[in-house]
Description:
The protein has about 375 residues and is of the alpha/beta class. The chain is built from 16 helices and 17 strands. The protein has helices spanning about 5, 45-65, 85-95, 115-125, 140-145, 150-165, 185-195, 215-220, 230-245, 265-270, 295-300, 315-325, 335-340, 345-350, 350-360, 375-380, and strands at about 15-25, 25, 40, 70-75, 100-110, 130-135, 170-175, 200-205, 250, 255, 275, 280-285, 290, 305-310, 330-335, 360-365, 370. The strands form four sheets. It has a nine-stranded mixed sheet with strand order 9-10-8-7-6-5-4-1-11, sandwiched between helices. A three-stranded antiparallel sheet has the order 12-13-14, with no helix packed on it. The protein is globular. It starts with a helix and ends with a helix.
Amino acid sequence: MTTKDILSYGVKPYNDEMSIYIHIPFCISKCTYCNFCSFANATQYVDAYIDALCKEIQTKATIFGYAKITTIFIGGGTPSLVPSQCILKILDCLRANFKISDNISITIESNPNSLTRQKLLDYKSAGINRLSVGLQSTKSRLLRILGRAHTTKDFVNAITMASDTGFENINADIILGVPTQTLKDVDDTLDLLLSLPLKHISAYGLILEPNTPLSQLVKQGVYQPLSDDLCNAMYDKTLTRLSNIGMHRYEISNFAFSGFEAEHNLNYWRRGQYLGLGLDAYSFVHGLHWQNTNNLSVYLKSNFRMLNKEPETRYTAMIETIMLALRMDEGLDIIKFNKDFDTDFLKEYATSVTKLRGLKLIKIEDNHLKVLDQHISNAIIAEFA
């Protein structure tokens, strides 16, 4: 597919800025809740995968090299599992083939037990300036249920090392709603997080994805799912405690001190362009969605075809804009929406707006439509579909 082909899609032209996502699919073990494209005990393929990934970078740069890259996110899988020289090789290849912004945000995901001081120093030297570390919980029984391969001590050591080696922008992931989890468990986890030099916390509600080991155990009655009321209470506790220390919620599951919001994710939520590189990576450029193969052997043969291509329509673009904007505390910019889609939002969606305002589920403030009850945000968003 040529640049001309790509530019033929899209409701309106986009600017020439883009984010890049890099997928590293290797893990020490597979978490019980994970449905991402990742492989345990497959590190023998790392070198071949990195070589293929660099070939894809070079190939895709011939199509998308016109864009300035403003954020890079290295995710997985467990990127910190592979040797740091692999990460450096990827970043060198990106710099050689794309136009990289001078003030780019580069994030790498990691697990606590695969981080070392030397890796962290190598990441810093390569220009990585944001670290995301998966904790999920401080409770050993919950880590076992989730299939996590680290301990709380591993996590504390990782954050301490990261801070000592000069990382300031550090995120921690936690999960709410795990079977057997209690409000005290959440409190204890937050106690630890608030004692560490973190600038960002992502608190995700557990989703029991079909065909994952944990969903099967719940289906078999080994574990009972938590009630909606308890899950909501866990979320409210997290929101209150993080707000009390000055971390603001800027998206349903994401909290940060001012200036430390995840720029890469903000680009997703604001419907910016992004190019996914690596196995099963998703892309969105000039109104066209597509994904890479999820077959490792196919990918290693340098098969970088764009699969499941889905050009958006005006309708799907409008719905996606609303859906993503209402996840954020800033809400939907009505003036921008009207300009982008040559419409009048309050007229086009008058029925939904009137209904939801009457139920006190949304508000309009400074020309922004905002959700008032994030517990039922999905149901609110569905009113606009």
